[in-house]
Design a protein that fits this description.
This protein is of the alpha/beta class. It has a single domain, classed as TIM Barrel (Alpha-Beta Barrel), CATH 3.20.20. The protein has twelve helices and nine strands. The chain has a nine-stranded parallel beta sheet with strand order 5-4-3-2-1-9-8-7-6. The longest helix is centred in the first third of the chain and has 14 residues. The chain is globular and about 45 Å long. It starts with a helix and ends in a 5-residue tail after the last helix. About 3% of the residues have low confidence.
């Protein structure tokens, strides 16, 4: 509400649990918050991340080879929550992770660890009844995804089971930093915003990597923007690891400065 009153969209920044190391990951999360991130999205490494592009796939594979597990992601959430009591934290993973570990138990453990909601890209609404019910009972938000070509009636169905924010995939395909966006991305955002109305906020992700992208989405009506692959790219490609945290904080500041809608 405070962001809306200030005419800003929320900046959601992604970290992959344990990447590049558990200790460094914690420091990166703090750098993102210091730079202005409003929400931290914690990725839980998964062996077959179908919605992720090469950048996140490679990072996830690296983390898994280093032994990073879902439990490590909850440990990270606890660390962040200890430092930031009011900071929203969402976990991004795939349905198999929480089903294999016992959906209700894992979500309760996540809630205790400080997680506020889940993003499950492969959870279809037709199979989400138990997930949605358990999440609601535990007090976790459910974030569902829509794409640019999701029909109006389908968007309405997805809005009905979304209790966090509606995640609009801005482009066709998988995640990954982009240079620019097509007109269809903005048209989709405006259409989905009309359908969602005041029922749920609409966040936009997939490919957002520059302040200009943030400004474009914010001024077009997005309630939030999600930045992921570009952050992982910075971590992977940084030639000077000693200055990485400062670089990430400065980058986040530039993104947050572009969040004003007007």
């Amino acid at each position: 509400m405070q962001l809306k009153e200030r005419g800003e969209c929320a900046l959601i920044c992604y970290v992959l649990a344990g990447y590049p190391t558990p200790t460094m990951c914690s420091k990166i999360a703090r750098a993102l918050v210091s730079g202005g991130a409003d929400i931290i999205e914690i990725g839980i490494p998964f062996s077959d991340p179908i919605a992720d592009g090469p950048t996140l796939q490679n990072a996830s594979s690296f983390a898994i080879r280093r032994g990073i597990t879902a439990e490590n992601a909850l440990d990270l959430a606890r660390e962040i929550r200890d430092d930031y009591s009011d900071l929203p934290l969402v976990a991004m993973t795939y349905s198999n992770i929480i089903i294999r570990k016992g959906m209700n138990k894992f979500m309760r453990d996540a809630k205790t660890s400080g997680i506020d909601g889940f993003i499950l890209p492969d959870m279809p609404i037709e199979e989400s009844k138990i997930y949605h019910k358990d999440a609601s009972n535990i007090g976790l938000s459910t974030v569902f995804l829509v794409s640019p070509n999701t029909s109006g009636p389908r968007v309405k169905q997805i809005v009905a089971v979304t209790t966090g924010f509606l995640y609009l995939v801005s482009v066709y395909g998988v995640t990954g930093a982009r240079i620019s966006f097509e007109n269809y991305s903005i048209s989709a955002l405006k259409r989905v915003k009309r359908i969602a109305g005041s029922k749920v906020p609409v966040g936009v992700g997939f490919g957002i990597s520059e302040p200009a992208h943030v400004k474009l989405m914010s001024s077009s009506g997005a309630d939030a923007v999600v930045v992921a692959s570009s952050i992982i790219n910075m971590i992977t490609n940084s030639p000077n690891k000693s200055s990485l945290l400062t670089e990430i904080m400065d980058y986040t500041k530039s993104l947050k400065a572009a969040c004003r809608k007007y």
